[in-house]
Structures are given as C-alpha cells and as structure tokens.
Amino acid sequence: MADKIIYAVYDDPEQLKSAARKLITAGVRVKDVFSPFPIHGLDPIIGLKRTRIGIASFMFGITGTALASLGTWYFMIKDWPMDIGGKPNWTWYHNLPAFVPVLFEFTVFCAAHGMAITYLIRNKTLPFMPARNPDPRSTDDKFIMELRTSDNHGHSAEAIASLLRGTAVQEINERQC
Amino acid sequence: MNFTLSNRARTLSMALMGLGLVVAGIGFVTTRSHDAAHAGQHFWSALFLNGFFFFGISLGALFFYSLQWATETAWSVLVRRVYEGIVGFLPIGAAVIVICLLAGQFHLNHIWHWMDHRVYDPADLEHYDPIIAGKSAYLNAPFFWLRVVLFMGTFIFAANWFRKQSLKMDQLTGDDLRTQHLLTYRRSALFLVFFAVFSSVLSWDWLMSIDTHWFSTLYGWYIFAGMWCTAMVTGVIVVLYLKSKGYLPQVNNNHIHDMGKWVFATSFLWSYLWFSQFMLYWYADIPEEVAYAAVRIEHHPGLMWGMFFINFAVPMVLLMSRDAKRNPRFLIGVGTVILIGHWLNVCQLVLPGALGENFHQVGALEAGLGLFFLGLFVLIVLRTLTKAPLTVVNSPYLEESVHHSI
Predict the structure, then answer these.
(1) Predicted-complex ipTM score
(2) Chain B residue with minimum CA distance to A87
(3) I need a labelling partner for B212 at 20 to 30 A (CA). Which of A14, B244, B364, B385 fits?
(4) What is the domain-level CATH number for residue A168?
C-alpha cells in the first residue's frame, strides 16, 4: 500500500494541541507539526525527542576556548612575547587575566555561530535552500499537523481522517507519497 | 493553603542558633587569648559581615520581587509569597547593620576608619590622613547617617508596602484587582529607580569605605550582583523545602528550572563584575588602585581565589545542563555551596580591611555568628511564610503561572 501523507490544518495552537492529544490517545502517531512559532508543551504530546543543540553549542564553545587559549599563547607568549605595561609575558597563566576577555568572546562567538549554522543545516534551511514546509500558510497564521499512514499501520487514511474530523480541524489535505 | 511551621523546623533552627552562639563564643575566647587588643574589633567585624550577608539576601529578594512586579512576570506569581517571606528578615538585618555602624560611630569598633574625626584634623600630626580628609565632603557623620536612615527607611517602607498590597489583592477580584495590580506595577518600577541608586551607594558607604583609601566604580554593581545571586539561591532552596513538605503543589518542574536558571545567570553576572573590577586594576597596576587587591592576593590568596572559584566555576560546571536545574536534591546541594561561597566573599570584603594584619583566616567567630544568623534567618523566613496563604489567591497572572511550561 502506498504511503499517504495527511495534513490537518488548524487555526489555533491550543486546538491543535488538544487534537494531537486526542489522536495520540486513539493510538495514532503524529509525525510532525508545522507552526509559525514554537508551541509550548507540544513536544511531549507528540513525543518529539529533546533537541541536542545545547550539547552541540557546548562543544562549539569549548572549541572556541581551546582555540583562543592556543592563539593567545602562540601570539603573545611563544612567537613574539610582548611587554605591555610590564605584564608577565613568559608564561601564559601569569598573564591569564589579560587573555580572559578574548577567551570569553571567542567562546561566545564559536558557540553562537556554531549553534546557528548547525541549526540551519540540520533543518535544511540554509539560504537558497527550498522550503520544506508543506504549505506556505504555516509560516503565517496556520498550524499544520502531519500524519503518515506508514507510521500508523493499524489505521487507514480514512480512519485517521474521520478521527481528525472530530477535532477543530479547518481542512484535511491528503497527498500520495 | 497555609504553611504551618513544624516543631522540628523550629527546634532545628533554634538549635542552629544555639550551636552558632557556642561556636562563636569559643571563637571569641580563642581570639582573645591570642590577641586581646583586637578581640572586640574582630567580634564587631564578624557581626557586621554576617548581618550584611543575610540583609543582602533579603534586599536581593526585595529587588527581585519588585522586578517581577515591574516586568509583570507571570511564571513567578506562584512563588511570590516565598520572596515575601525572605524579605521578612530585612528589618532584622537592617537593625544589625545599624547597630554595627552606631558602634563604629561611638568608637566601640574601628571597622570604618574614617569615622575617627582625628583623621580630618591637620593639626593632629599623628592621626591626620590627607586622603581621607579630602573625602570629608562625602564621608562625614551627618551626611552618612542621613543616607543610612534614608536607605533603611526606604527599604523597610517598600517591603511593608508591597507586602500589604499583595495581601490586599487576595481579597479583590475583577476591576478592583486590575487597578490594584497596575498600582503595584507602577510603584515597583519607581522603587527600582531608588533601589538602583541606593544599592550602589550603600555598598560604598558600608563596605567600600572600610578600605577608605581605595575606590572602585564597579563596586556597587559587584555587591548588588552578590545580593541578587544569594537571594535567588535562597528562593529556590525555600521553594524546594516547601515542596518536599507537600506545599506549593502547583509549582512544577518548569518553575524550578526557571529559578535554577536565575541562580546560574546571577552567578555569571557576579563573576563577570568581579572579574571586570579585578582585571582593570590588575592591568593598569596603579599603586593607589591595586592596594585593595594586593592585600588580598598577597595575604589571603586562598580565600580570594577560593571564593571566586566556588562562585564562578561551581555553578558554571554543575548547573549548565537542563537536567541539573530540574533535579531538586542537586539544586539544593549546589545552592548551599554557592551560599557558602558568597558568605566567604563577604568575609573577604570586610575582614582584610577591618582587621588589617590581624586578620589571618576566617575562623570560628565568623562561622559561629554565621550559623546563629542562619538559624535566625530560617526561623524568621518560615514564620513570615505562615502568616499568609502560601500562594497568592488572586492575581491577573495566576492562571498563566499555574500553566507555566518551558
């Protein structure tokens, strides 16, 4: 049987949430939700896994600290020791207070840029990439739930659609995959 | 639901006060046997630093409390009464500080060297201090006491006023409730303006003037960040204690997470300000500016770097992850460590300046009085909590706070 994708369009995030709850209770798996903004409390309802972007951000940050440490040590201590205001320039750690601002800034720089770029790549939303949302209205004022028959072997497309019709759904669109 | 103070909690905090007094007594006797001439000064310094530390927690809580009003923050409405409870200690902390300052004014202690009028007299060759004399337009008794009365009066008045409005709102609904909410909202913004100036100036007056020759423009922010951080830690510990006793059932993990974030964020704010102050002086290396840091680095490096490590590295490493901020036991453990760290911070703010070369290490006298005040603080805070429903009854944002989710 061919895979069918069902898009259920809602006007309001709360209506979508209660609809999702109803479907999950009936044993239907919700694949994903497209929304103009993050919907609080939706993730645990549809069973989305927690984002690991925080871990990625931490790794980027640590990388930044390490690179900045290496850089300050090489530029200011090893390669060309500079006497600035009589500050100790033979050891890195004696001169550490002077390097803390750049360590801090480079850590933040790497964490922020790394996180943003990872986010864009992971979501396939880098500039000039084609948009992957099924319906452009989900970037405006509509909240769209995606369900797949391949995820829901116990339920036919008809059964899912009739379940959906019992909620505050605005329209139901089906697509062959 | 009202909170009732259990006999166990009352006995424990009383026991803590008693134990504190015993330890402080032992500390005092030991100090006197070593150095009889400075035992009095030592006692007053320890009393003042502990009074200031716990006063700071209450004042930080008062600031955070009015910040929640002024920003109309919804999530914290459920824990508003907890902060009112912490603010309950404010008058007692203020009294301890005023007693220490009065004792200084009447020369029972010499924590504030500039209170000795002889340093202003050019004819007194032995005591005249031209640097302090140059500051006499600001550091003189009438102006100083005017400020003390103004600050303490404003804080205590504001604390009482906010508490009264909050209790009044429990009886109101509909339009009355909204009007009352907006009034408190506007007044809290006004209070924050006064707090911004007063918190800065009080830190110069009571703490920075201990090292009279020295000055720092970042000092006020640094002291304020410490107060704020300790208030956030105390807030989350009290909430977790109440929850463990079955109170505050509507406070969920998301509220705890947010309070944990505040601990994390204010720890960073404090560390940032401490380091900014330190680094600029370290870099410029001008003798009159480094005096303060030089004493601490040369004679008390363990205390200075140790307390910085505790207050910066411990929250950074241990509270970074989401799971840590949602784990009550872990949060209480880390919070306690941070409180000790900030207590050591106040020790190193006061003691090296107040005792000079007679200060060797933080000992039983400071710790004992610290335990005494901790017991008193817990008792007062819990007693204040019994006096009103533990969650506010009516607030335009109550519903939103109950459904807080992050």
Answers:
(1) 0.82
(2) B283
(3) B364
(4) 3.30.70.1510
Whether residues B278 and A87 touch (CB distance < 8 A) is answered with: no
Per-residue model confidence as pLDDT tens digits over B203-214: 999 999 999 999
Domains in chain A, number: 2
Is residue A40's pLDDT more than 90?
A: no
Minimal C-alpha gap between A97 and chain B (Å) = 6
In a domain, A47, yes or no: no
Minimal C-alpha gap between A149 and chain B (Å): 31
Residues B229-255: tens digit of each pLDDT: 999 999 999 999 999 999 999 999 999
Q: Rounded CA gap, B119 and B214, in Å? A: 16
Contact B275 A100 (CB under 8 A): yes
Q: Kindly tell me if the per-residue pLDDT of A174 is higher than 90.
A: no
Burial B260-273 (b: 16+ CB within 10 A, else e): bbbbbebbbbbbeb
For residue A41, being part of any structural domain is answered with: no
Chain A contact residues (CB < 8 Å to B): 40-41, 54, 58, 85-87, 97-98, 100-101
One domain, residues A111 and A147: no
**Domain containing A111: what range?**
53-122
Of A40, A58, A85, the CB nearest to B283: A85
pLDDT in tens, B257-275: 999 999 999 999 999 999 9
The pTM (predicted TM-score) of the whole model is 0.92
**DSSP string computed for B164-199:** HHHHHHTT--HHHHHHHHHHHHHHHHHHHHHHHHHH
Chain A residue closest in CA terms to B278: A97
Query: Is residue A60 domain-shared with residue A23, that is, in the same domain?
Result: no
Q: Are A64 and A111 spatial neighbours (Cβ–Cβ below 8 Å)? A: yes
Instruction: Name the interface residues of B facing A (CB cutoff 8 Å).
Output: 275, 278-279, 282-285, 320-322, 405-406
**Shortest distance, CA B308 to any CA of chain A (angstroms):** 14
- pLDDT (mean) for B40-59: 96
Domain ranges for chain B: 7-394
Shared domain for A102 and A66, answered yes or no, is: yes
CB pairs under 8 A between A and B: 21
Q: Examine the domain organization and report whether A117 and A57 are in the same domain.
A: yes
Q: Is residue A131 part of a domain?
A: no
HEC string of B36-54 equals HHHHHHHHHHHHHHHHHHH
What whole-number percentage of chain B has pLDDT above 70?
Answer: 100
